Q: What sequence folds into this?
């Protein structure tokens, strides 16, 4: 997308979310522009969905999220922030163009509104303190995803060159670039944790840096020497959370004249000691247990585990809780170099794509919904499932269930091969669908990993399609959704006066 298009997209979005004065905060994750709003009632959801480049909208707690897709969101967000800072409302669209054209009675917009209503109802039922806490934990890791992706691909490229024996002088450089971030990821987790939970970010990073400091190998805790990196991201998360609590305590009790000296010192010292003589050991034990459990689960019951994980992942995405799995993925990458769970969970997206294709085939007389599917399918193939979930399958009801069936079948396929010894996973988190291919690695080699993952996608597509085609609709649903819009009468010609409306 060119810079002009990026700015045009941002300019089209801004007035539809209430203008600059209605924006409290702006951020983005891998696929969504996340906006904090002062007044939710000023947002025009229907018009937003009609903006070119907008794949969908999601409301998650206090944050309004506009799905733009990977790559696009990182380019549109700075333009949107600039417009907000300038406080300039973009000009209205040219004459003769409207944001939301008239549609037939059962349209993509109507289904999207129905999906948003369903999500709102589920969100109201699931806004428990525990789930809200999980979402905040996810917010710690979401900003790290671009670096995880980039470094994961670079590390994979270095491994491929090493295996092929090509450009041997470049391999150590690629290894350093690809592994440097992972070696210090605990520091970034600590920084983001303190920022998310109301502490000073750099103090959270300073406490977490203790975990990766090489000198910890000289420290004896619980009768054994610590290892640099022991506890990983889980230890960093816990250490930074403790640092936030200590900092808040100090801010309330330390006199202002001493605050600049005492508060930072105690915030680093107390959690640092607790981390060295407690958290690193406990978090290291938990991290090792998570890795061992995942390996044993897929080695002994891979098909069943894959079926359950692949079948239940779409509901987690629908509720926004899938990002709470990011710490587990990151821990598995630290443990074995890749996360075995991500390829299985990615099968949910394959089932969703297959279901959407079946909906497209079953509704030949609903041009609005078919247009939505055509625009959302490329993102779905790359693993961005929200537009298809909230715009197609979830509001239709049955196709959401049959999409889960497709995900379960694909997950069972990959889990079965894990059980047979072809263990593989993703070296980074974030991408899914076809975008996951460059990040695959495993014990049986790249070719086997690629083949099994491609087979899983095919099974997910076909099963999701078949389940939706044959079981995704009732006859009344087909009759309602296949109603073609009534064509408007042609404009009168000079020789033919316009038809007078009938009197009731």
A:
């Amino acid at each position: 997308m060119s810079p002009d298009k990026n700015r045009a997209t941002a300019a089209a979005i801004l007035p539809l979310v209430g203008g600059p004065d209605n924006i409290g905060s702006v951020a983005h994750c891998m696929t969504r522009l996340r906006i904090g709003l002062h007044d939710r009632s000023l947002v025009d959801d229907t018009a937003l969905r009609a903006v070119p480049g907008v794949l969908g909208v999601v409301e998650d707690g206090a944050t309004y999220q506009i799905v733009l897709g990977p790559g696009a969101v990182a380019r549109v967000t700075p333009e949107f922030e600039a417009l907000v800072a300038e406080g300039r409302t973009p000009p209205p669209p040219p004459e003769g163009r409207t944001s939301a054209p008239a549609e037939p009675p059962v349209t993509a917009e109507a289904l999207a509104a129905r999906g948003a209503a369903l999500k709102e109802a589920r969100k109201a039922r699931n806004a428990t303190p525990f789930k809200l806490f999980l979402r905040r934990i996810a917010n710690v890791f979401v900003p790290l995803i671009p670096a995880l992706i980039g470094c994961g691909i670079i590390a994979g490229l270095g491994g491929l060159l090493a295996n092929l024996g090509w450009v041997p002088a470049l391999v150590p450089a690629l290894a350093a670039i690809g592994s440097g971030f992972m070696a210090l990821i605990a520091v970034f987790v600590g920084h983001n944790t303190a920022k998310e939970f109301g502490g000073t970010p750099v103090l959270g990073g300073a406490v977490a840096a203790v975990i990766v400091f090489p000198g910890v190998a000289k420290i004896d805790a619980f009768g054994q020497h610590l290892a640099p990196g022991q506890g990983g991201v889980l230890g960093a998360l816990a250490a930074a959370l403790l640092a936030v609590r200590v900092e808040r305590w100090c801010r309330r009790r330390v006199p202002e004249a001493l605050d600049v000296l005492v508060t930072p010192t105690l915030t680093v010292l107390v959690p640092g000691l607790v981390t060295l003589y407690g958290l690193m050991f406990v978090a290291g034990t938990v991290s090792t247990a998570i890795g061992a459990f995942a390996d044993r689960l897929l080695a002994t019951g891979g098909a069943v585990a894959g079926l359950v994980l692949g079948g239940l992942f779409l509901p987690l995405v629908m509720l926004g809780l899938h990002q709470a799995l990011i710490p587990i993925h990151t821990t598995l990458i630290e443990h074995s170099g890749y996360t075995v769970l991500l390829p299985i969970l990615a099968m949910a997206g394959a089932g969703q794509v297959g279901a959407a294709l079946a909906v497209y085939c079953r509704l030949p007389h609903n041009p609005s919904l078919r247009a939505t599917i055509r625009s959302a399918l490329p993102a779905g193939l790359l693993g961005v499932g929200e537009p298809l979930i909230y715009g197609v399958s979830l509001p239709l009801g049955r196709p959401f269930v049959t999409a889960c069936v497709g995900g379960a079948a694909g997950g069972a396929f990959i889990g079965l091969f894990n059980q047979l010894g072809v263990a593989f996973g993703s070296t980074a988190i974030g991408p899914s669908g076809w975008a996951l291919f460059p990040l695959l690695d495993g014990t049986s080699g790249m070719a086997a990993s690629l083949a099994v993952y491609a087979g899983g996608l095919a099974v997910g597509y076909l099963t999701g399609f078949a389940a939706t085609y044959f079981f995704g609709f009732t006859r009344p649903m087909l009759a309602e959704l296949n109603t073609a819009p009534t064509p408007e009468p042609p404009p009168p010609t000079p020789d033919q006066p316009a038809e007078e409306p009938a009197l009731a």
Q: What stands out?
A: The CA atoms of residues 338 and 427 lie 4 Å apart. The chain has three domains: 3-85, 138-297, 312-481.
